[in-house]
Every structure is written in structure tokens, then in C-alpha cells.
Amino acid sequence: MGLKLLILLALLCDFGASKENETPKFASSRKFFEKKHCGEIHPDKETACIFNYDNVLRSTIGFFPTHCSVVCADLFIGKDCDLTEEELALAFKNMKRLIGGLTISGTNYTSAKFLAGLESIDTGSEQNILFEDNSEMIEIGLTNLTSIITDGWLISSSPKMKTLNLPNLKYTTPAESEYTHVELWIEKMEPNFCITFDEMEQFLNIRKADLTNIAANYCEPTPEDDICTKPAKGCTRILGDVEIGPDSDLNAMKSVEAIFGTLTIKNTSIESLNFLESLKYVAPLGTGSGFKRFPALHGKKAVIIMNNPYLSNYTFPSLKKIRSEALHQIVFEHNRYMTPEQCIRMEDSLYMSRGPTVDGNTCVLLKVQSLKIVEQSQMIFLVASIVICLMLLLGIGTGIFARWCIRNDNEYQQFDKY
């Protein structure tokens, strides 16, 4: 107990001493660390130790709490870092949870495997995860990372990077409650970088991951990927665009679970989407003309459904998630009427950052239009009711007046006889 108290006092002294000259950015991190109870000793769990230097250098690494599995720090490993990958691996070998930001920028390291023991990262709302301008980096290599809490992760400008190698990442959630997704940005990469099919399925399985901004292509298929290039009986994965037309064999689509391209359904007589009974993911990738400057305008849509006059059931039986950099990720045009409720239900079930459009209208606009139609119908009904009532009243009034005239005329005739 005495040793734990000494450790706590040392941590708090170091924590307090560094506050005098801290920048506003560092001060905001301090508040986050306090919120996360960094430096406190908990009898029922491990202490969250503090590293009070945001720059990782040979002169600061001696202060890193190498014995701790939970570390509070904004780790910045930059071009001035004079430590080898082996030395970094030795310093970080016991760290499993990082509370704070992580930036690796401008280095010559071949990977981030010196952080291979890291299982979770919680950056808070003031920090993010950033890998950029690492000229020799071939992969990220955080092989044990399973969860991240952050608002964004940027991977950029690493010319030798070939793949991510994040095989166990399963959970993401935004640091701030007002955000609904964690944005994964991959940009300014060379053509040798690619996303594997397993990686894409893995990311698509993470509900709150926003995969809109991935400027990359798919890797070349291997036999182990079990990839088809067109629909066929028993095929589960298709690389490339799939178009369902009036003469397509719908039975060939029943086993398909993932389409790594755009799905188009047009000019058919289908009434429902039940023939896509196994489809879980639709995810086109590609860095075609205009992609880097205007991805929302030039990017490939995930799903296009048009000119299907009998289609009334718009439910995808098994679809979990789609990704597309296009402004409109799912497009419905010139089909049978889709209700606002159907549109909103699809948007919610797929947890989309950009919802579907129906004849150019978003779900919200579709709802507004529907309400306007209802209001117009109610107004027409009200006006019609008033007119009918007036006509009835006028009709009744005319009848009463006619009867009164007839009665008076009869009385006058009787009086005239006398």
C-alpha cells in the first residue's frame, strides 16, 4: 500500500509541475484525463498512469510508465523521434489501453508494430488518430487493436504502404454523443496501397464506422478470397458491378453475401427484393477521374434501383451496411411509389451517413411532400364539405321557401272566394 501511495504522489507531482507551461491543447487533454480518473489508484482495477510529454523522444521516453497497461497520454511520434522501432516496442510492450490521442507523422518506421500490444484507444473529443507522411511505412500493423473511441482516424501520404493489417478491429464509437459515426479517412495513397476483401467486410461489420472517405482500390483477388466476377450459382462474393435486368437469373443472386461494386436493378418486373436473401454488404471502391477532388460527385453509388414498375416491397432481407463515397449512396428512380416510412426504415436499418434518395428526394423531403399531400387532401375535403353543406342548406332553404309560397297562395285563393 505504501508503494502505491509513493507512485501516486510521484505521478501527481509530475502532473502538477507540467501544468505551468502547458498549451491550451494540452490543457484540454488534462481535463479529459481528469474525467477518465488518470493517475488515481483504484483498488478494484489497474491504475491509469500518466505520461506528461506529448513528444516521444530519447530524452522523454525514460518517463514513460512502462509498467502500466493503461496509459493516459497524447502520444506524438514525429520526425524528431530518435528511437528505434525496437526501443519503442520495449517501452510500449505492456501498454494495452491508451487514453489520449495517437499521432505518427513524418517518420521512417516501417510499421506501428511497436504498439502491437495495444488493444483499445480512447482519444476523447479533442484528439484523433493520425498516421501521415510516413515515407517507409508498409502497414499500420496494430494487430491486437479491437476498439477505438474517437471522432476520426486519418491515414494519409504514406507512399510505401501496401495494406492496413488491423485484423481484430471490431468496435468503434464516436467520442462525442452528437456524432453518429467514426470517420475513417484514407487519402493521398499510392496505387500499391489496397484494401483486402476481408478488411472491407470487417469494417462493414462495424456499425458506427463511416467508410465514405476511403480513396483506394481493392487488392487483387487471391484463391483464398473466393471471389467471383459475375453472378453464378453458389457464389458468395462478387468483385465488380452487378446489373440485374429483365433477363437476369435471379436464382444466381440468392447465395451472394457481398458485392464489391455497384448493384443496379433496372427495367425488371420484380415485386420485391427477396431474391437478394443473403446479401449483407455492398461496397464499391475506386479512385476514378475526379475522385480525389470531388468524391461526392464522381464516386460510385452503392445501389441503383430504377424503372421497376411493380416493385412494392423495398426491404433488403439481410443487408447490414453499404459504403460509397457518392453523395447519394442508394438511388431509387421511376419505381412504384415508396412511402416515407419505407425510406426512413431503410436509412435507419443501414445506419447510413447519407440516406437513400427517391426520385431525387431524401427521406425527409419525401416525408414533407407526403405531409403536404395529406394537408392538400384535407383542405380539398374541407372545402368540398363546406360547398356541399352550403348546397344542402340552399336546397333546404329553397324547398322551405317554395312550400311557404304554395301555402300562402292557397290561403289567398281561399280568401278570394269569399
From TrEMBL:
The cross-references to Gene3D superfamilies, in alphabetical order and at most eight, read: Receptor L-domain
Signal peptide interval = 1-18
Q: Mind telling me which InterPro entries this protein's record contains? A: Rcpt_L-dom, Rcpt_L-dom_sf, SPS2_domain
Q: What is this protein called?
A: Receptor L-domain domain-containing protein
Keywords, A to Z?
Membrane, Signal, Transmembrane, Transmembrane helix
Domain Receptor L-domain, which positions? 68-161, 234-340
Bilayer-crossing regions: 379-402
- Entry annotated with the keyword Transmembrane: yes
Species classification: Eukaryota, Metazoa, Ecdysozoa, Nematoda, Chromadorea
Q: Which domain of life is it from?
A: Eukaryota
UniProt keyword Signal, yes or no: yes
